[in-house]
Amino acid sequence: MRIISGQHKGRRITAPKKLPVRPTTDMAKEGLFNILNNSFDFNKLHVLELFSGSGNISYEFASRGALTVTSVDENIDCIKFIKKTSAELDMDITPIKSDVFKYLERAPIKADIIFADPPYDFDDAQFKKIVDLVFEKQLLNEDGVLIIEHSKHTKMDKVEHFDVGRRYGNSVFSFFKINLEE
């Protein structure tokens, strides 16, 4: 995986093979950040990455100057890798070892962007639970967005707060926003 833009543009990061991860492809990540670039000033963002795995998305936000980046994953080896890599790159990323659902129940932060990349084999109820918890616990700042990466076989367009979906190969990014009438 590589960092596409920002302070560490072009930097390649190689995760150990033992990590149970499926990093977002460079093509999909580039598409995602092109969308975000048109809507957000990265220097003002508070970002929360859920199911962070190797930290691929966190590194991209940090490289682009996000104010805070928090990475949550339940795998200790993933957390150690993020901690080591962010230290080597002098990135201010806070890795947290936790079950994502438990973390969302008690999350002490609000974010402008929450990015979740759960296992593609999650069932519909597990995907929906991520959305429900983020909005029930009011974890997004005003004008914030929840982005869930999932396979093209998972349909999220009927889930409350759904805004738009973007497909890149076999991956889809579903965007969820606070409804204006709330």
From TrEMBL:
* One of the record's GO molecular function terms: nucleic acid binding
What does the record list as GO biological process?
A: rRNA methylation
The UniProt entry, under PROSITE patterns, shows: N6_MTASE
Q: Which UniProt keywords apply?
A: Methyltransferase, Transferase
- Family matches, as Gene3D superfamilies: Vaccinia Virus protein VP39
Annotated signal sequence range: none
What's a Pfam family this protein contains?
Cons_hypoth95
InterPro entries membership: DNA_methylase_N6_adenine_CS, RNA_MeTrfase_RsmD, SAM-dependent_MTases_sf
Q: Does the keyword Methyltransferase apply?
A: yes
What PANTHER family does the entry give? METHYLTRANSFERASE (PTHR43542)
What's the protein here called? Methyltransferase
Task: Give the originating organism.
Answer: Gillisia hiemivivida
